[in-house]
Design goal:
Distance between the termini: 4 Å
CATH class of the domain at 27-64 and 150-323 and 335-357: Alpha Beta
CATH topology of the domain at 27-64 and 150-323 and 335-357: TIM Barrel
Order of helices and strands: HHHEEEHEHEHHHEHEHEHEHHEHHE
CATH superfamily of the domain at 27-64 and 150-323 and 335-357: Aldolase class I
Radius of gyration: 20 Å
Strand content: 5-15%
Helix content: 40-55%
Number of helices: 15
Shape: globular
Largest sheet: 3 strands, parallel
Strand order of the largest sheet: 10-1-11
Length: about 375
């Protein structure tokens, strides 16, 4: 039996703690209470207990990949985004194959095995352009894992090409796509999504793309950008949509949340400051407790920095994300944190865990000593 977490008071939190430690599912109403009322350290300790139960207690995983943003032209007008440029802008770009290839070669030079391929919603590129890109990547780098094309990109490609989401994904997978990132989720539920993600796919369309990907055997991740104009109830609603789909398909490998970064965005006047460390840790801990069917939680050191990223390992996270090598979207909004592999491993070790490199499916890419499972 797990050791009870010190609760700040008897009553509702003690009863809820007992249920969580017994492996019972919490309701959306209980998640909202945790988000709004629970004492933060107690909440974090409870999330940490769940993390220890779901994943090896001594281990924190990470990956080495490179974020390749192949274009910043975009037909969407997301009010939270400082990266995109309209299709008429003279300052937009589309990376050439030579530029992308150079980035992949640099990734392979440091031992990386995965790219995170994402871009804006290009107004002209139909599926044949993406199929050609995938085939070219795989022809030169056959063992490279392509984690790419968020749900909004899939929707845009499908619409331009006159295809269903399932057929679009099937063709891309045949050309070399290995998995989908959770990007473009923001807040899934209306009406907040319609206000902040103008011109982007709806929340239901995001869910349907991931449903079809899972049916085809493509694993995906789930994300949430919080702290703009959404209410706490809308945050929980977002988590509920993810949990419901995971109940149906089991295709999400991990959940990642991060605070909205306001600099240089259209939403800055309404949300002028990014959520701080306490708000981030609270949101992540609630995510760990509510998403009982999602196996992994990633620490978002990219937005929060190394120290808060370490703290996140005690608020439900069992993964330290990725080296990434470069980041363009969040940094366009004024937030820049960079860690190479040595610093990631050192940060994990200093937090008291053993760093282990992984793949997108959380397959371990280095040998680890087996330990006796934690009682619980």
């Amino acid at each position: 039996m797990s050791t009870p977490v010190e609760s700040p008071a008897a009553g509702r939190d003690a009863a809820l703690e007992a249920r969580v430690l017994a492996g019972e599912r919490i309701t959306p109403g209980e998640a909202l209470w945790l988000h709004q009322e629970a004492e933060l350290n107690w909440l974090g300790a409870l999330a940490h207990e769940v993390r220890l139960r779901l994943n090896p207690p001594e281990r924190v995983t990470y990956n080495i990949d490179r974020n390749i943003n192949y274009t910043n032209y975009c037909t969407a007008r997301c009010r939270f985004c400082a990266f995109y440029l309209p299709e008429t802008s003279p300052h937009g770009y589309v990376l050439s194959w030579e530029e992308m290839r150079e980035k992949i070669v640099e990734l392979r030079a440091i031992g990386g095995n995965q790219i995170l391929l994402q871009g804006g919603l290009h107004p002209d590129y139909r599926i044949d352009w993406y199929e050609g890109l995938m085939r070219r990547i795989k022809s030169e780098f056959p063992d490279l894992w392509v984690h790419g094309l968020s749900a909004p990109e899939i929707v845009a490609i499908a619409d331009l090409s006159g295809l269903s989401y399932a057929e679009t994904l099937r063709r891309l997978a045949a050309a070399g796509l290995d998995s989908l990132p959770g990007g473009g989720a923001e807040i899934l539920v209306p009406p907040v999504r319609e206000e902040i993600a103008v011109g982007k796919c709806t929340g239901r369309e995001w869910i349907e793309v991931h449903r079809q990907a899972h049916r085809l055997g493509l694993p995906t991740t789930a994300t949430m950008m919080f702290g703009s104009i959404e209410s706490p109830a809308e945050r929980i609603g977002h988590l509920e949509w993810i949990r419901d789909l995971q109940d149906e398909t089991g295709g999400f490998t991990a959940f990642i949340c991060w605070p909205f970064q306001p600099d240089h965005t259209a939403l800055r006047k309404r949300a002028p400051r990014a959520a701080g460390a306490a708000a981030y840790l609270r949101m992540q801990a609630v995510g760990r407790l509510f998403l009982d069917n999602v196996p992994h939680i990633q620490s978002s050191w990219v937005t929060m920095g190394e120290k808060v990223g370490q703290l996140a390992l005690f608020y439900g996270a069992d993964d330290f994300g990725s080296v990434m090598m470069e980041e363009n979207v969040v940094s366009a909004a004024g937030t820049v944190h960079n860690l190479d592999e040595a610093r990631i491993r050192r940060a994990v070790e200093r937090a008291g865990f053993r760093p282990v490199r992984r793949g997108m499916r959380y397959d371990l890419l280095e040998a680890v000593e087996e330990t006796v499972p934690r009682a619980g």
